[in-house]
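re: ur question from yesterday

yeah so i grabbed the chain u mentioned. its 368 aa long if i counted rite. heres the sequnce exactly as i have it in my notes:
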Amino acid sequence: MGKQNAYSVLVVIGLIVSLFTGMFCLEPYIVKNARANPGNVSEQWNNATTLNVTVLYREPRFNWYDFQYNQSGTWVSRLNAQSDVNDSAEYRFIVNISSDSGWENITYINITAWYDQGNDNSVYNQTLGGNMNLFLQYENLTGTAVWKMLWPNGGEVTSDRYSERVVRDPVGSPRFTECHNLTFSFVPGYQFRYAPGDGGWDTTHNATNDPQSWNFKIYASNEQGYVSWIQDEFGIYSYTEIVSAGWPSIYAYPGENATAENNITLVTRSNGNYSLSVDVGNLTHRTHPTANISRKRIWLRGGDLDISSNYTTFTDLLYLYGAVATYHRNQANGTSLTTSDVEYKCNIPLGQIAGEYTAPIRYHLKTT
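ran it thru and got these structure tokens back, copy pasting raw so excuse formatting
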């Protein structure tokens, strides 16, 4: 045991000494210092990173918009131009809107449109009437869209086709921005107000600078109360139609100023200021062409013609609405005008031959 302890002590001593002398290495222990690129390193550039700044809007952003006509399935822009109304032509407002706070932050998107009465400073519903004002709404308070036509409500316009599509905003933030396309379709009725413009349409976008047009504004609001809006305009062609006219019949004796059995009814449509005149020819006997009754003996009243009046010459006209170069104001509401108080009278001369007489009636409805 004594020898083994002695050997163990010698081994330990040898290991300790080798740490300093390198006795177990093939060469003496040498401490080496190495440097890959000897010399001064005075500077260095790093261009691998960028500063990223994202500009976000508190209010909703309008990217683009249009007013379009459905031309056999293809939507064609009708901004700053006149369009037809015939109770079947379909139009739509289409708008692309972004929200940098997420779409759930959007509360309302309202579209108001109105005939400007020749004044581009006019506003929605300043002149009341279903044929001169339009209000469409998109409501987003619960996460489920609610579409409404708030005005008109008398059938002057029909609106039941809406759509919403999620799209990408090319300049928005992928993290924060949501972008939607919204379309509001509607069909204007026959008396949707005529709007010829001022004779030369200015095609500047987001502007109302053509009097005698339809102006519109699209508003977008969010939960924080921020509101954005754009404005523009479009025109409407005139529409004029005499839908129906009754057939007056008079039974009378010579010397009698007789009234027709019943008043007749006229149904007309005009989407602007209008006049309605009546021209009646001479009464001609059915079998005796020379046994006539002069048109001067025919009397008429109805519409705005409150007092029964007769034709005084062979060429004059009687007006139920308006007069020569004077026009009745357009119908603010409704899709047609019914005039049911048209009364005809005839003053039969003494000695007039018995029998049936007829006279042509020509109604002339004019829109301006």
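noticed a couple things. The two ends are 134 Å apart (CA to CA). also The longest strand covers residues 61-71.
anyway ttyl
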